Amino acid sequence: MAKANRKFRLRDDREAIVGVGTLIVFVATILVAAIASGVIIKTAYSLKDQAERTGLAAKQEITGGLKIIDVVGDRVNPGVAVAGTCFNCIRDVYVTATTWAGSDGINFWTMKVHWTGKSQNVYLSQNPSGLAGNQFVASATTFGADTSDGVASGGWQPNLAPAPGQYYVGNDLIMKIKIDTSSPPGSGLGENGIAPGTTITLDFIPAHGPPVEEQFTTPNDYGNARYIDLTNT
After folding, report:
1. Which spans in the chain are helix H?
2. What is the rounded distance in angstroms from the CA atom of residue 173 to the CA atom of residue 52?
3. What is the mean pLDDT of residues 42-64?
């Protein structure tokens, strides 16, 4: 009888050991599943953040560019010799522009204009002349810009203190950009004006979004007109 009782107790011990082992495996499975879930969730959030950044960058690249409306050359005084400008040449170039619909807009303060002309290859920055009340000042290193009606609006507040103000342009604004091509450098680019039959390339390079290239070739004869349409020429 003692042997039977001893044998029965051994059988109970073995069943208990199997139960504990199963419990350990079950707990280990839960822990592994929890760790795996944490890794998956962390990866998902990381991919989400990366996707949002990529989407924002793609939006800026697609919609962040400048929209060129027209390009006009100004001879200032046709038939009259102007100091620092070849006779009857175009002295100033005006570019009318806005931003594309859906764009986040462009900060003109950080935008560069790359001018490639007959004798100059320069990068121009926004002229901080708003506090002087004249946004159309341009020089050998700067371009002038203002709204088409000369009225400050929205993010375009050049005379806002502290200097240099705000130069943010959304698609609710139409801007005019001025480039002075006259000589000597300091008053203009140093091109001595633009003669007939000259090819010029302008690259507008914002801090965000694609650069926009505008190339034009001036007519072979300006005639008596003061303003020369250079759009898509």
Report:
1. 2-63
2. 28
3. 67
Q: Is 166 helix (H, G, I), strand (E, B) or coil?
A: strand
> What are 58's two structure tokens?
């793609």
pLDDT of residue 151: 86
pLDDT of residue 217 exceeding 50, the answer is yes
- pLDDT tens-place string over residues 78-98: 888 877 888 889 999 999 999
Amino acid at 26: F
The whole-angstrom separation of Cα 166 and Cα 185 is: 27
**Identity (one letter) of the amino acid at 7?**
K
In tens, the pLDDT along 168-182 reads 998 889 999 999 999
Task: Give the rounded distance of the alpha carbon of 85 from its chain centre.
Answer: 33
Domain boundaries, the chain: 1-63, 66-229
Are the CB atoms for 205 and 112 separated by under 8 Å? Answer: yes
Single-letter residue type at 154: G
Class of domain 66-229: mainly beta
Residue 179 · residue 124 · CB < 8 Å: yes
Q: Which of 182, 122, 177 is nearest to 148 (CA)?
A: 177
Tokens of 207: 């801090």
pLDDT above 70: percentage of residues in the chain: 85
**Is residue 115 within 8 Å of residue 180, measured between CB atoms?**
no
